[in-house]
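TL;DR need structure tokens for one chain.
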Amino acid sequence: MSVVGFDFGNENCVIAVAKERGIDVLLNDESNRETPAVVSFFEKQRFMGSEGAASLTMNPKSTVSQVKRLIGRKFKEVEVQDDLKLFPFEIVEGHDGGILIKVQYLGEIHEFSPVQILGMLFSHLKQIAEKSLEMPISYCVIGIPCYFTDLQRRAYLNAAAIAGLRPLRLLHDCTATALGYGIYKNDISNAGPTYVVFVDIGHCDTQVCLASFESGQMKILSHAFDRNLGGRDFDEVLFSYFAAQFKENDDIDVCTNMKASIRLRASCEKLKKVLSANAEAPLNIECLMDEKDVRGFIKREEFERLSSDLVESISVPCQKVLANSGLTVEKIHSVELVGSGSRIPAITRMLASLFKREPSRRINASECVARGCALQCAMLSPILRVREYQVQDSFPFSIGLSSDNVPICTLPNSTLFPKGQAFPSLKILALHRNNMFQMEAFYADPNELPFGIASQISSFMIGPFPVYQLEMVKVKVRVQLNLHGIVNIEAFMQIEDGAEVTNVTSENMVAKSDHSPSVEQNGAEVTNVAQKGKIFKRLEIPVSEEVYGGMTKAELSEAEKIELQLAQQDLKMERIKDKKNALESYVYEMRDKIFSKYQSFATESERNEISINLQKTEEWLYEDEPDDESENIYNQKLEDLRKLVDPIEIRYKEDEAREKARKDLLSCIADYRMNAGSLTAVERDAVIDECNKAEKWLQEKTQEQDSLPKNVDPVLWSCEIKRKAEGFDATCKYITKSLPRTDDSDHIDKPDDGELD
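>> reply
TL;DR here they are.
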């Protein structure tokens, strides 16, 4: 069982693995610790990660990035429409109001949901992990933003299922960071809790949490966030500044050219990093647009002035997290600053002013979430022993529950799980029913939700009951806010043992139409319960769930099949690419050898024929791809070339092998002649006679071979000399009755038996 943590960011992903000696971050095929969250669709193949990012400027309309922004969202949301202005790929509205991404692939237009794209990226990350660990993986922990809704959390689980992953937990990003911080911290005071604020400024969002640390445990006291404020907003400030400058000075409108916009945004992101360490920075881009080179310059002071509103906005979730926790600034022991957008000096100064202390950067800003997820996976996994450490997270939204459209009032505002509720959490409700009934989960306070998010979560149909009841019976409903932050419901009923009941038959079951939610039929588990001298039976009641806006089981199964087909197509193209590369390498290698080391072993006509065929093959390789491109066509081309080159290559190799075999035979003859002096006269004469015969045979054959040019097939083969040597050695051993050899002959490897030719 693997112990892996995934940090899936809006721009980059990080994979961490827990091992006995600690947490390691895995490298991808390019030996980088971060993998771009990009999928690029080409004519016959997908490219993901670093390869996909490299295709962004060449293939922008079919290269999908920042898919995290689209997960679990509706097409008409204002924030989605704002994001569409930044995306080069096309997005359309689905039949359910969701999002579909249109790309050109396999010669036609394909539409994929954000969940499918996310599943592709998870598959890619899984491949990287399996290749690095040299073992299959399935169990993992995945980091998610704390502001993710129930629908978005389910979307992540569906995407993981498409990739063949089984998440043990979806862990909030800041919680993962706090876990990695607290479990290794040895200076926690025993006098009371240590309060630490974690500020995570990512590529597209800002998350803040306040954690309480005590010996052996941590608690998240409050979360706050701004899901539309991150490092890319500072990039956009620079983009707008230089776009206006180039329009005025160079008469080019970058905003009208997709590729130019992509290049300028990439340059602005690099420039932002330079300004974090320098007071000023230049910008130079060759052939940005209309074959014009552009140059720009900006001072950090000017950049901070342009982005002052953004810096001020980051203080809002910081103030909220303090207000929600009920703590004052004076009680905060430390402020930890992480995230890809956290390196801007103006942000550091603002946080220092707000919290009255300098923010710390002791945590790895890019890897802390993945490391925390790997730690949590190790704690949930049975294969690694991790020291006892309790992690208590809090849920950022209030959740209510209603039955048949009537709120179940356990707290004010019909709230079942209040904001800040520690989870996982379980509530058991007792209701009186005699037939099927419906329950709905919803967000109790819409003001807590990000703008444009519907308050409905999911609907649960409880029933049919396993037995008919004419009177009301007590039905207990288990409502769980699980480890992923998702609402689940189970139900059961209790009846007195011996009471007259009627079993429900298949005719009594409610028929399910194509549009009804899927029903997961639980077995009627019967448990006897003693209560006040009576025996009760506990009967499980089936619960069917409909997630508003979520994937059905049929849709998930179809998405898994599509991903399998796409993966097989990718593997097929990789094999074809390997065959093509092998053919190309063979052409270049033989072109060099045929006029150098192989030159004397080929006739002029053979060299010309091979040269012509190599040239034709090279031209064929660089022409348009064949219509029936497959492994076989490249194998056939390579085989045709080998038929021409192999005879020459054999002559060359045979020339080297023949010389070695000749020397070995002469050495063997010399050894037996040297040892003949210790034999009887009869044995000595017989051995000397065999030595003379073998030597004469070798001289005659060698003279015959030397009389021929090297560019014809040999008459004396190395294997023939080896057989002669084996037969000679066997005969001499028979004559001398295995006479021991001298030390000088120990280096000769001779078989124990054989026949003399």
